[in-house]
Amino acid sequence: MSIEYLTLDEIGIKDNNNIWLEKVKINDINTEVKIDTGARLNVMSNKFYKKLKTEIKNSNVVIKVFGGAIIKSLGKVQVTVVNQSAQIIAIFEVVEYDGNPILGYMDCKRLNYISELNEIKKEVSTEKFIKNHLDVFTGIGCFPDKVKIKVKHGSVPIINSPRRVPIKLMEKLKELLKMLCYKKIIEKSKEPSEWQNNLVVIEKPDKSLRMCLDPRDLNKNIVREMVEIPTLDEVRNKLMNKKLYTLVDLKDGFYQCELEEGSKRYCAFSTPYGTYNFNRLPFGIACAPELFQQLTNKYFGDIQNVCIYIDDILVYGKTKEEHDEALKKVMDRARLLNIKFNPDKIQYQKNEIKYLGLKFSEKGVEPDEDRIKAILELKSPTNLKELQSVLGMVNYLRASIPNMADIVEPMRALLKKIVGGYGVIIVRGHLIH
């Protein structure tokens, strides 16, 4: 007599706290099976077996279930199981219990559920990684260096009148300001500021509030930093033909950059509840990407097998060992510096990753399908600005389009004119073919 082990009342893989169920057809009967990748056999209830009207054969299998109880098989049946991707002949043990048929590991694999299992395992692995580095994935970080906003000599300060905030958003804005003050991202202005920027308040789909600075007048007077941001070709050469990738995103990136005291006065804004200024680098400031890239390069740029683009740090490796060593150094460095990553945006141990409009893997590099789709769905440009936008988008794909320079030359020749749909049609043709 052989003993098989099966968990009946605690299926191993769950999704949103529900048992993992899949729709199948067993001998022409539509049903849902429970997926138990820890089980070494398949099981169905006696009640379900009676619907099949098929022969049952003797079985000497004894099943030990979760909790230690023993169930004797009433017999075994051979059935056809069909799902959307496969059809198999499978053996099920028939037992007295209430519930859906249970599919064990081997037949999960034959019905192609194993690939889905691998994805779930990766999710579990990601959660475990975050849990092991929880201090790096919680709270608001802050780089050791303070950043300075430089304004052109002789610039005339501009005070913008505060914009009206819809009455229904007033209370939410009050709470948001209170929260940002608590986190020391902003503070109440201690004295009148020569520069005052507009505030933009947007209600997001989840009804929470997004508060943005509109520093368009300030931006005209800012001195931009000369910082090397990686080119697309440099990124391609680093990332193609690698076995493993992990992408981490600095949480609320710019808010991890503290402004030096003299720069805070440039980032003041008025609200119905008074005037505030930013203590951290606000989104929308023209020089913010360069200032941020400076800091990420300074503190993470010396680590091998790391690609840094603004607030994204992509770790890669030709081997798992090479990848894991670099990732450990990134985590240790972040912990030492009090830098925080976003747990919702991590892509952990991927064999293939989408980055900057391209898809990288061990096979090489190819265009991201989403980027191609976006270009194909573009409306034909009708003015100079729209044409420049089209050229900017297709530029990401230049390495994948033969004779790209010749193809876009007619569009470049039209840059100083108001154009119709000519240029994008040419590019679409080459993308399709």
TrEMBL record:
For this protein, the record's PROSITE patterns field holds:
RT_POL
Its domain of life? Eukaryota
A Pfam family for this UniProt protein? Answer: RVT_1
Signal peptide positions (record): none
UniProt-listed Gene3D superfamilies: 3.30.70.270, Acid Proteases, HIV Type 1 Reverse Transcriptase, subunit A, domain 1
UniProt xrefs under SUPFAM superfamilies:
Acid proteases, DNA/RNA polymerases
Per its UniProt record, what InterPro entries does this chain match?
Answer: DNA/RNA_pol_sf, Peptidase_aspartic_dom_sf, Retrovirus_Pol_polyprotein, Rev_trsase/Diguanyl_cyclase, RT_dom
Reverse transcriptase domain: residues covered: 183-360
Q: Which GO BP terms apply?
A: DNA biosynthetic process
PANTHER family, per the entry: INTEGRASE CATALYTIC DOMAIN-CONTAINING PROTEIN, PROTEIN CBG26694
Q: What is this protein called?
A: Transposon Ty3-I Gag-Pol polyprotein
